[in-house]
Each structure stands twice: as structure tokens, then as C-alpha cells.
Amino acid sequence: MTALIETLEKLERKVTLTLPVGVIQREVDARLKKLARQVKIDGFRPGKVPMNIVAQRYGYSVQYEVMNDKVGEAFNKVAQEANLRIAGAPKITEKEEASEGMLAFDALFEVYPEIKLGDLSGEEVEKFHAEVTAEAIDKTIDILRKQRTTYGQRALDASVQMSDRVTVDFEGKVDGEPFDGGKATDFQFAVGEGQMLKEFEDAVLGMKSGESKTFPLSFPADYHGKDVAGKMADFLVSVKKIEASNLPELNEAFVKSLGVSEPTVEGLRADIEKNLAREVKARLLGKNKQVVLQALVAKAQLDLPKAIVQTELERMVERAREDLKSRGIKDADKAPIPEDLFRPQAEARVRMGLVVSEVVHVNELYAKPEQIKEHIDHLASSYERPEDVSRWYYSDKDRLAEVEALVVEENVTQFVLSQVKVKEKIVSFEELMGQS
């Protein structure tokens, strides 16, 4: 077997492979003989089927298999001898012109790019920092109390107040016509919780049980119901029941109901602070990692292998179809999803993956066993039985690989931070958690 390697454009290469016809035919004959000993055909005893019948029935498929195997072996040998790092599967076509007794094939493929990592010493990167505040703990406690709110019916002559839970019938019309989602019976909502538009809540405030009223409501332009977004509607609402909200007191009985290990108010605050600190740490790691990796990629120079981008595109389109399926969309498998919608994101992911891999390789930033264990121990610490969680991770190679990938990304983050000028930036707890 001989091979000629040509460089085409950027990462594209072409290898011309030639194989002796005799090698192919000998392998085809050997496989057909083996098949003849196993195949079952009506009218013949096992192992007694004539070779001409076996060849007639299975010859084409066996020859196709042999050709694939031999060309694949030849291609892999050429790639190994030339130290080629193949990106994606090669596209192989048979050539018509070949010398007597030989078969010729062209293999078109791409190689992984040479990656030039930029000098980061002059770059300035913001490193975010946040702390768990007393206000954040108070707000979390308030949320826990609201989740356990009880309601008691108000007197018949009482009017709706903020935080009351009301039961209403309503019907809305736009230009005198009803619209989807504009009518409900025995509908409950807590006033002031943002479940309804503010104009709706304002209209209900002050009404008494048994009262009805009509009021105008302007739907916001970005309202999720596209049929009524930006339009004016007229609503008829009838109040049927008014219930006052009762927040549980912050005491030991309330804390016990939450199952906190130390059933005191101080114990609850300590438990919340611990959980929030864990969440803050995770979000800071994610935020800092994103900024650092973006700075790393921005300074790197490389060409993207089209084959790898195409694979990522197909993955993203498949995930989009699965998402449509999960939403109950009919014929999601056939839905037209243009790949170009995802191309910028796919290219960014491939670029990020290649650059990070290069940094890891060049600087030996691979995940160490003790780092993986430390990360798993940290994840497990928030559970009642940490040892079970640890076993769960270590029992599955895919789960372990996910942890390993996270550790490697953290190693890269810390490495880049050691190379750049770091500018500390304090962010509020609310900003970090996306509450502002």
C-alpha cells in the first residue's frame, strides 16, 4: 500500500490510498468461507451450502465490509506514520483511474489546528467577590415563612387588602371579543405576590366578597400572550372569597418544622448561611471561570475544523428537538430547525474546547485524584449521607468524568488568573444571585 498526502485549504488534507486487488479478494474469500460454515439457507444442511450460492447471496455485502475495513486500516496507518491528528471522520471515495491490479481511494479529512496561545501577562481580568449578608439570610427566612403561610377567611364585610388570598371569577375581552386565557372561575391568587398584573391587583384591592366591577387593563408589549400583548382589554371581576394571610412566627416550633439539625433560630440562621455560602462559592466560580476563559480564547489564534463544528451543530439541533419533544410539540422529530441558528454558539464552544485542551496539555493542568475527591466531598457535604453521594459519583465513569471536567476547568481558571493582572470586583449578593 502506498499513500500520497496533499495539503488543501487550511486544515483540509487529502490522502490517496492504493490497495492491491488480490489483498481485497483473498479477505473476501476467507470471510465467505467462514460464513458458509455458519449460514442457514432453506434446502441445505448447515455448513453444506455451496460456495457459489453463498457468494451470490452475501458476496456484495462482504466485499463492501472488507473494502471499508482495509481502506480504514490503510488510512489509520498513514495517519499514524505521518503523526496526523484527525478531526472528524474522513470522507472516502473510490477513484476510477488506478494501475492494473490496484484499487485507488481518495480520503478527504481535516486535522486539528495548531493553536497559538496569546501572551496574557498584559491582560486585566475582573475577579468577582461576594459575601453572604445578614439581609440575605433575613430574606431567605422570609421566603421560608411565606412558603408556609396559612389563610383564614375574613369577615363578610371585610375588603381585600395586600397579602390577602382572594378567590375570583373573571372574564376579559379585547374589542368586545373574548380571548384565550382571559376567563377563569374560582381562581385564587395572593395579592401583591406578582401572580397577576399590577392593574388587575389594584382593581381587586378594596373590593368586598360578593362585589363585581369592570375595569380596563393594558397588557404590556412584552406580555407572554402574544394575541393580547400591547392591547387594551376590559375585565369583569367578581370577588367570591377573601382570606387573610397568617405568616408563621419565627420561633423554635417553626424551625423544628423545617427539619434543621439544631432547632433554634440561631441554628436556622447558621444553616442558611452555610447553604448560601455554598451557593455563592459555586456562582462565583462559574462567573470568574466564564470571564477568564473568554480572555484566554480572545488571545488565542486557531482555525476551526469544520467537521468538529458540524458535529457540535448536529448535537445542538438534536438537543433542540428533545426540548421540543419534552414540551409536547407534535412531530418534533420533523420540525425544521436551521443549523445556522446555532452556528455562532457551536463555533464558540468548539473554539473554547480546543483552546482549553491546549492550555491543559501544555501546562499539565490535568485533574489529580485528590482534586476530584475534594470536589466530590464538597458536593456531598450538603447531603444527609455524604458517603452515599460519594459512592454514587465513583460508581459511574460518566459522572466521574463530569467532575473531572469541572476540576480541569477550575485548574485552567486558576492558571490564567496567575498569568494576568487581577482586578478585584465586589458584587452584591443580590446581583450575584440574579435578584437585581
Can you count the helices?
A: 12
Number of strands: 11
Rg computed from alpha carbons, rounded to a whole number of angstroms: 34 Å
Distance between the termini: 67 Å
Strand content: 15-25%
Tell me the overall shape. Answer: elongated
CATH class (first level) name of the largest domain: Mainly Alpha
CATH topology of the largest domain: Trigger factor, domain 2
Low-confidence stretches: none
Major β-sheet profile:
5 strands, antiparallel
Tell me which CATH architecture of the largest domain applies here.
Answer: Orthogonal Bundle
What do these coordinates show?
- By secondary structure, the chain is an alpha+beta fold.
- It folds into three domains: 2-110, 2-Layer Sandwich (Alpha-Beta Plaits); 150-246, Roll (Chitinase A, domain 3), CATH 3.10.50; 255-432, Trigger factor, domain 2 (Orthogonal Bundle), CATH 1.10.3120.
- 46% of the residues lie in helices and 22% in strands.
- The chain has twelve helices and eleven strands.
- Strands 6, 7, 8, 9 and 10 form a five-stranded antiparallel β-sheet that branches. A four-stranded antiparallel β-sheet has the order 1-2-4-3, with helices on both faces.
- A hairpin with a 4-residue loop joins strand 1 and strand 2 (12-20).
- The protein starts with a strand and ends with a helix.
